[in-house]
Amino acid sequence: xxxxxxxxxxYEVHGGPAADRGTVILSAGLGGSGAFWAPQMAALTSRxxxxxxxHRGTGRSVRTLTNPHSVAAMGDDIVQVMDALGLExxxxxxHAAGGNAGLALALDHPDRIDRLVVVNGWSRPxxxxxxxxDTRLALLNNTGIAAYVHAQPLFLYPADWLSANNARLEAExxxxxxxxxxxxxxxxxxxxxxxxxxxxxxxxxxxxVLVSASADDMLVPSACSRRxxxxxxxxxxxxxxxxxxxxxxxxxxxxxxxxLSFLGGDLQEGE
Length: 271
Fold this sequence. Notes:
With 271 residues, the protein is of the alpha/beta class. The chain has 11 helices and 8 strands.
């Protein structure tokens, strides 16, 4: 593994033995940390070179945002990482905010993406997503960072998984509070997600896309993924029956299997 920064964006490159299979760039969700993808790393690095990065404003990256901030700007950040590594093209895998950034990238820089995986993403504002983010913002604004972080697993994971993994979540909570972005950064990132609307442009995204979601996602209704898959010209829809918004963490084996099949070209439209 080697790491670096470009325009304040921290990235890591993890080498896999099958370089001819290409490079996979992993883009996390609202939390922004590349470490989110730990459950996928062993599976991916066995077949690909893998690039992790921390979103602008989060983690080890610069703690300020582009102004104005937008999902399109998040997509441009992926291009910056690619340029720093000399990558003309790559597979992009994104979760929620990262998936939306991948969609924006596919619109603005279609020549830079081979295959795109959008996990729990959306193409237009959704009332339920807004209600969830409004609730989280109210906690952040009125109660503070600790309350926001403490409530976060309620939106991410199924109740039975929460109960079984309470000790792990309590330990992670301390870490998340210590590394929490400036509240203004988090507010701006949420507002960028709430403003994201490319619904009328989806037919312009021509690359193969795996649209992945969980049926019991508390934060992003699976109907949002179904809409993406219906309107994207070259999409495969995969709905996991269980796992919540963070099903890449709660049920990684099933997700990893489908991910590798898609990136390897084995999972085709209609399967």
